[in-house]
Design a protein that fits this description.
Blueprint: H1 2-14, E1 28-39, E2 47-52, E3 57-61, H2 65-70, E4 80-87, E5 92-100, E6 105-108
Parallel strand pairs: 3-5
Antiparallel strand pairs: 1-2, 1-4, 2-3, 4-5, 5-6
């Protein structure tokens, strides 16, 4: 029985969404560079391929495609950007905010703890979220 519980717990941890591993304990970096490609593929969030000013190539994960549409955020290849995000795997960055130089627009994607802004406040109490009505 203990083996079954341990296996179930391991399965649950392995099934955590990718965003949960990008909290405040993961290093935050800043990058500047040029977008070389915007990629939107099924079952993957939109991402940018970025050639940093340093010459390194990075994959930048943005998040929810719907959120980008709602915020009227439409990055294009060739645009210059600066961004802040948490390190992922193999030259990957999970973007927290991104600024497009040509438009001067900055889009916030995640809060300081790494939680995606498109997921809202969740089930927080009114003490934490004063805008939420009390039961």
């Amino acid at each position: 029985m203990r083996l079954l519980i341990a296996l179930a717990a391991g399965w649950a941890l392995a099934a955590q969404p990718a965003d949960s591993s990008h909290g405040p304990d993961i290093p935050m970096i800043e990058l500047r560079g040029s977008i070389t490609k915007v990629a939107v593929e099924p079952r993957q969030g939109p991402r940018l391929l970025l050639k940093a000013d340093s010459g390194e190539e990075w994959t930048v994960w943005l998040g929810s495609f719907r959120y980008l549409l709602e915020q009227d955020f439409n990055p294009k290849a060739g645009q210059q950007v600066s961004l802040r995000g948490r390190l992922g795997d193999k030259r990957e960055v999970i973007a927290h905010s991104i600024r497009v130089k040509e438009t001067g627009r900055t889009l916030e994607l995640r809060d300081a703890a790494g939680r995606p802004l498109w997921r809202g406040q969740g089930m927080r109490s009114s003490a934490v979220n004063p805008d939420r009505p009390r039961p």
